[in-house]
């Protein structure tokens, strides 16, 4: 019998060929043990036993996290993450069964892309996130800051002077420096301060939080490169409803770890999936979402490529501006 522990044990050991089998097994487990997902599948008239590929799996609309408690099985919350949203909007709630698992998994996602946390100083410029509770991003960065064991790692909130002083001090340090910021705060820094951050890796986490007009990712990265004297701008693709993160390599594309897969769906037909090389709506399979739901139909627009990489182009019409919102094309 499949258990939470068996799925988590397979998370880091499987290869690409095993992904399909693990995803299908997890689908059957969640289809029987997740009350909301089971009701959704039943309402669609889908026979679980007839699903033989990942593309055939019914993906649950991400909006369900706003109005339902999404849990596979019965357990007590170790934590609750909520999305940022906009003033007056309904936020998503992700119930977390094991906070340590989330933090250690987020660390594995980062290590897979960039190496050990102890190789970096983490300077976090996340004013909108720090000003509210229950942010998964803040929890992740707190973990990164602690594990880096750097006296300079920390949250800077609105103290740009100290931030720039510390960045200048770290120019001669053997460790690399990461400045991890919400988009509008990085733009403010680029436009008002125009510092030399050529010694930093700059990570933008997307979203204007209602502070500025949304712009394309290309525009954003060009402005940040020029205003911060940076060769590259890195991006993180993550959201309240996912336990995994994907990262860019400084280009416009994100690259997935082995436990996450992006699937394009037809914009006007959510059941037509597997779209490649053209604008599509984005579905996510996140095998780390063992305790909630691993198959999520997001409201993001993007392009998925044959090698598994993907771009995010914006948001679907009438969808909320959320924490993972990047730029609207």
TrEMBL record:
Keywords associated with the record: Transferase
SUPFAM superfamilies with a match to the protein in the record: Acetyl-CoA synthetase-like
Matching Gene3D superfamilies: N-terminal domain of ligase-like
UniProt GO MF annotations: transferase activity
Listed InterPro entries: ANL_N_sf
Full protein name: Acyl transferase
